[in-house]
Specification:
The protein is built from 36 helices and 20 strands. Helix 4 crosses helix 17 and helix 30 crosses helix 35. The radius of gyration is 33 Å and the shape is elongated. The N and C termini lie far apart (87 Å).
């Protein structure tokens, strides 16, 4: 062997030549191993080299990206199993009908909206799934759950039209759900509006990805707990590249990998555009996504280029095209999609080396160089690899053209997302591109194209869906009605705490604990907490039911041997989600919809800081309402003044108001343990036995007080609790001339009871009412008002609250106090026969103790007394000097600034 001189002694040309020889020798060696020992052995050697280089100080940089080409090599592509020509005709018909449906809607009602470009870019990635992968209800435990991209709904409707699920009349009612002509089609996936069709609402972007992750995890949870037979179901989530900027889209990616969710497949439609323009004009968004997902531990499959590019790559021995791919930015790619072959020739194939590769190619030939997401063979190969992959979730990133096939008006244009109209010329071009047998007159009249039920296309579609288990999307509700405990089961809470000081949060935990022990329903209870089990007193449940972990517990906890040992188990029942309200709420949604998605009526109890609930997860709560979720949300440490010391960010005075706006969310603010028990008992009965699509937000506080027994008139009290109010304490002073009715909720009950006692000194007899739900009262009052307005000649009805608080039944002034903002109770004004004076906690919280906080917010007993006396003055029953003297007696500074301004 000839001894080589030191590199430093070589000329630059000699060093370059030596480097070239060395590189080729290494490549030849690797090629030999690949050919003779296979991919796995080659990977082992490369890993050994990597370790060797690292320990000897070679600065090898970690690469999060693979080259900007398809992940699956053309040689590794499986044979396509379908009829390519029939599937092409089906896609073309669906594309046309999706466009016609939106155009008809906007012709009928200017500005009704709808989206053309998203489905145009994603037809292939959906149709490969529909024809070969998506399994319907007939597949049993292997049924897939599919989160469709919301803006692609026209294409999903158009497919259902060809399948015979919708007729033309219904297609014509796209975005016309109130039409007298018959049922409509909702703008986007909305299970509330189409309960037999859509399963998941997805168009509040970012919520689909995180919910899909937790749905996939919940399948594993049900299987590991023996509530659902093990199967091979997949959760598919179709996402847009612009949508990935939402924090919820990416916030739980690492969690999915940690849980080894190989039943989860994201399909990311990278058409490189969002609403206003390119997603990442100056870089390559696909490469960014690859780095993001690979870094989080996902299996990444890129579908970048279609089969036509394979011809060029096969003869590109020097890698010139791959180098050119690496130099691309998305803004440049958008121009090629918009302006076609000539632009490609001039701007992409811009070196002699690249120009040589396309010698003899016309501009029309170059037009055939497409993006991989429009090549069904490439998409099929990616999907098959995804469903066969084990050990981690998969993302399939498909490169497509937004507005594909829609012509100069929309294809790859910045305005593509907003295009809702196409002129006659563009429509004719689209018809020709899709090769549809429609006349110009039919095009002009926006006629749908349906080849007929006996056509090869329709027979093929239906046969494929039958083989895969039936139509999708399709929502079916079929679950065994559980036997739920009633009556004596809750008696201990009706009996009161017998002198023990107990918070309603502890009462809630005791109710859950008892439900968990119930032989009939216990297995269905799913406690969920976001890393606050000890805060809420739920740590006692952990040793008994365990925290769910697919890995079990591979360590001995530091508190091993104690009563409160931290126990993780594969079949654990509690979901301890860590510090992620979005994740915990997504888990709750998965559990709260399991009755429909899996036929398993799990009953979730999600317990969280009330301040970090509604205002932080409000969008997910609305999504839960849309998909007809059932279960309980417990807002713990509730109220602005109960969470002493925590201050502004923690003290909740507004969650009840935020919860109010959700139509099917029942909202309660109980003061006592027996009230909470009544609400839970009735809620379980209504949701899981009666099958009513509603869910419950219930506040629970952390202030320890002796819990009273339920009053003796139990039937009346139970009705009052559920309808919103009942008289808890009647004044025994029947001789007093001055009367008052004090309405109190949750932790404000103590102030009302004390105020009633203090008012005796002023000659005022005050009854105390427990108001468990201002929403129930207000909604009933509004419905009563509406009925009376629509039936002006009939005897007016009286709302529940008006009847309870009538002068005859409840004489005197009305004063309300709660630990929440005043607007909640103030909604009753206008529905009563006299004014309701309202005290509440408007303003920012403070780090203080409870008495000081209640004085600051003017909701303590002294301020309830003052408000009552002032109401009597305004009612002409007291003179002003009496109220002025009371200010001094009560120690209230009349000149201090209002808390809402401080």
């Amino acid at each position: 062997m000839t001894k080589m001189p030191p590199r430093a002694a070589l000329s630059p040309q000699e060093r370059e030549q030596l480097n070239s020889v060395e590189t080729q020798e290494w490549l030849d060696s690797l090629a030999y191993v690949l050919a003779n020992a296979g991919d796995d052995r080659a990977a082992e050697l490369l890993e050994e080299l990597d370790h060797y280089a690292y320990f000897h100080g070679a600065p090898i940089l970690f690469k999060q990206n693979t080259p900007y080409i398809n992940t699956i090599d053309v040689e590794a592509q499986p044979e396509y199993p379908g009829d390519l020509e029939l599937e092409r005709k089906i896609r073309n018909a669906i594309r046309w009908n999706a466009v016609v449906m939106v155009l008809r809607a906007n012709k009928r009602a200017e500005g009704i909206g709808g989206h053309l470009a998203t489905y145009a870019s994603s037809a292939e990635i959906y149709e490969v799934g529909f024809n070969h992968f998506f399994r319907g209800h007939g597949a049993g435990v292997d049924r897939d759950l599919i989160f469709f991209q919301g803006h692609a709904s026209p294409g999903i409707y158009a497919r259902s039209f060809l399948e015979g699920r919708f007729d033309e009349a219904r297609m014509n009612n796209f975005r016309r759900e109130l039409s007298p002509d018959g049922p409509g089609l909702s703008s986007y996936p909305h299970p509330w509006l189409m309960p037999d069709y859509w399963e998941f609402p997805t168009v509040s972007m970012g919520l689909g990805p995180i919910q899909a992750i937790y749905q996939a995890r919940y399948i594993r949870y049900l299987e590991n707990r023996g509530l659902k037979p093990r199967g091979n179901a997949k959760v598919w989530a179709f996402l847009g590249d612009g949508e990935m900027d939402e924090p919820q889209s990416v916030g739980a990616l690492r969690f999915a990998a940690y849980e080894n969710l190989d039943n989860l497949i994201f399909v990311l439609n990278a058409n490189l555009q969002r609403l206003d323009g390119p997603v990442r004009a100056n870089s390559k968004v696909i490469q960014e996504f690859e780095a993001l997902f690979r870094g989080a531990g996902w299996n990444v499959i890129k579908v970048v280029w279609d089969s036509k590019w394979d011809e060029l790559l096969a003869k590109d021995y020097n890698g010139a095209i791959v180098k050119r791919f690496e130099a691309l930015v998305d803004g440049e790619s958008q121009r090629y999609a918009a302006f076609g072959g000539r632009e490609l020739r001039e701007k992409f194939f811009n070196t002699p080396e690249l120009q040589k590769l396309i010698e003899g190619w016309s501009d029309a030939d170059l037009e055939l160089l497409n993006r991989g997401g429009h090549d069904v063979k490439k998409v099929y190969a990616a999907y098959r690899a995804a469903v066969e992959h084990q050990g981690s979730p998969t993302v399939v990133i498909t490169r497509t053209v937004k507005g594909y096939g829609l012509g100069e008006t929309a294809q790859a244009r910045n305005v593509a997302h907003q295009v809702k109209k196409l002129d006659f010329h563009a429509l004719k071009n689209l018809r020709d591109l899709l090769e549809l047998p429609l006349s110009d007159e039919q095009v002009e009249h926006l006629e749908y194209y349906n080849p007929g039920p006996d056509s090869p296309e329709i027979r093929y579609m239906l046969a494929r869906r039958e083989a895969l288990g039936g139509f999708v999307p399709k929502r079916e509700v079929n679950y065994p009605r559980p036997t739920v405990p009633t009556g004596e089961f809750y008696e201990e809470f009706a009996a009161g705490s017998k002198g023990r000081a107990v918070s309603t949060t502890m009462a809630a935990v005791q109710i859950m604990s008892k439900l968990l022990r119930d032989k009939e329903i216990g297995k269905y209870i799913v406690p969920i907490v976001p890393d606050e089990a000890r805060t809420f007193g739920m740590d006692a449940l952990v040793p008994r039911i365990g925290i769910y972990s697919p890995r079990g517990q591979k360590y001995q906890p530091v508190d091993f041997g104690s009563l409160m040992v931290y126990k993780e188990a594969v079949d654990g029942q509690m979901l301890e989600e860590g510090i992620t309200e979005d994740g915990a709420m997504s888990s709750w949604i998965a559990a709260a919809t399991a009755y429909a998605n899996h036929g398993v009526p799990t009953i979730p109890f999600y317990v969280f800081y009330s301040m970090f609930g509604m205002q932080r997860i409000g969008d997910l709560v609305w999504a839960a309402a849309d998909q007809r979720a059932r279960g309980f949300l417990f807002g713990a440490t509730a109220g602005r003044t109960t969470l002493a010391g925590e201050g502004l960010q923690h003290q909740d005075g507004n969650s009840l108001l935020q919860a109010y706006v959700v139509p099917n969310l029942k909202v309660y603010d109980p003061a006592f343990a027996y009230e909470l028990a009544v609400i839970v008992e009735r809620g379980i009965q209504r949701m899981y036995v009666d099958g009513i699509d509603e869910f419950y937000y219930v506040t629970i506080d952390n202030e320890n007080e002796v819990q009273p027994p339920m009053p003796e008139n139990r039937d009346e009290v139970r009705e009052g609790i559920l309808r919103g109010m009942y008289r808890f304490q009647r004044s025994e002073n029947n001789k007093a001339k001055l009367r008052a009715q004090l309405l109190a909720s949750g932790p404000a009950m103590g102030a009302a009871l004390e105020a009633a006692r203090m008012l005796e000194a002023y000659g005022v007899a005050a009854d105390v009412w427990s108001v468990t739900s201002y929403k129930e009262l207000h909604q009933d009052a509004l419905l009563t008002q509406r009925y009376n307005m629509l039936h002006p000649t009939e005897e007016p009805r009286v709302s529940y609250v008006a009847g309870q608080l009538s002068q005859e039944n409840a004489p005197g002034v009305l004063v309300s106090v709660s630990d929440y903002v005043k607007l909640g109770a103030d909604g009753l004004n206008g529905h009563l026969d006299r004014k309701l004076w309202v005290l509440g906690t408007d303003g920012f919280g403070r780090s203080e103790d409870r008495p000081e906080l209640r004085d600051f917010f003017e909701v303590d007993a002294r301020h309830v007394v003052l408000a009552t006396l002032y109401a009597l003055q305004r009612d002409g029953k007291l003179k002003g000097d009496v109220v002025a003297k009371a200010l001094g007696d009560l120690g209230i500074d009349p000149e201090r600034e209002a808390p809402v301004l401080r």
